[in-house]
Amino acid sequence: MYFESFEAFLQMGRHGAYVWSAYGLSLLLIVASLVSAVRAERGARQTVRRLRQRANNAGENAK
Amino acid sequence: MWSTLVRWYHQLGSPRYFYRFSTVVLPWLWVLAIVLTAVGLVWGLAFAPEDYQQGNSYRIIFIHVPAAGAALTGYVAMGVAGLVALVWRMKMAEIMIRAIAPFGAVLAAVALLTGAIWGKPTWGTYWVWDARLTSMLIMLFLYLGVVALMKAIEDDRQGARAASLLSVVGVINVVVVKYSVEWWNSLHQGSTINLTRETTMPAEMLVPLLVSMAGIYLLFAVSVLVRARAEILRRERKSRWLQEEV
């Protein structure tokens, strides 16, 4: 590690507040976007499964 | 070579092939993207040396530059998809526009926010209305405009046409962002990484920057694939092949 202690790492000279807020905000935005993408995909997949189920049931009943 | 590219284009242009392709590729891409991003950021934050002028505030570069670069590249990709959608009315191209825009907007916002925070200790101000910052803000609005257009217009094809047009026209702004620091006087520093000229950065800083850049680009790719799948699942929900696939 470049820093001498963990405190020094957190403080980053006088720039800790800038560096950590920049990284915190970035991570928050990126993770939130990825989570919403995964949720959308999962939700859409469940809808398709439900439609298949319904189609199968309709087929069974017709027999 | 050319024929392989053409075949690839036609295969990935089919929602069915694209869906299968992404099923295979995504798990690997997730792992690679997360590992590279984590390694690059931790390396930049904790192991790279301090900058002799800017001190530790410069460490913001390891997220700022990858986000800005990927936002720009993503916009060009969206513009190309927009052109293909307008000219050939290719369904997959329309899906790609919708898949690219949200994460592009997030990365443009990240670039703007981290830039503003970095500006305070470096320039003494969070924001100036100069060419680089203003054109980047316009890029965020263009991305958000594409997202909003596709959501607002009920008919998928019509929404895609409007969004394609905005994507294609907005590519002009990418050129403005890219060359703004050369065309106008700006507080913003010139580019650090150059393909044509020598890079003005020591390897201890450059290598972690390139690693986190690769990571962020791959996260963008992951986001595009996941959102494209969601869109295929929504549009093709009634087709037999997809119902057999899920």
**Low-pLDDT runs of chain B:** none
Largest interface, and how many residues on either side? A-B, 34 and 43 residues
Question: How far is it from the N-terminal to the C-terminal residue of chain B, by CA?
Answer: 34 Å
Structural class category of chain A: mainly alpha
Broad structural category of chain B: mainly alpha
Using the alpha-carbon principal axes, give the shape of chain A. Answer: rod-shaped
Q: Rg of chain A to the nearest angstrom?
A: 25 Å
Number of strands of chain A: 0
Helix fraction bin of chain B? over 70%
Features:
A: 63 residues, 2 helices, B: 246 residues, 8 helices
Descriptive notes:
Chain A is 84% helix and 0% strand. Chain A is mainly alpha-helical and 63 residues long. Chain A has a domain at 33-63. The longest helix of chain A is centred in the middle third of the chain and has 47 residues, at 16-62. Chain A is rod-shaped, with a radius of gyration of 25 Å. The N and C termini of chain A lie far apart (71 Å). Chain B is mainly α. Chain B has one domain (62-245). Helix content of chain B is 79%, strand content 0%. Chain B has eight helices and no strands. Chain B has helices at residues 2-12, 15-47, 61-88, 91-123, 131-152, 156-183, 203-235, 240-245. In chain B, helix 3 crosses helix 6 (156-183), helix 4 (91-123) runs antiparallel to helix 5 (131-152) and helix 5 packs antiparallel against helix 6 (156-183). Chain B starts with a helix and ends with a helix. At the A-B interface, helix 2 of A face helix 2, helix 3, helix 4, helix 7 and helix 8 of B.
Note the topology.
The complex is a heterodimer of chains A (63) and B (246).
Chain A: H1 6-11, H2 16-62
Chain B: H1 2-12, H2 15-47, H3 61-88, H4 91-123, H5 131-152, H6 156-183, H7 203-235, H8 240-245
Helix pairs in contact in B: 2-7, 3-4, 3-6, 3-7, 4-5, 4-6, 4-7, 5-6
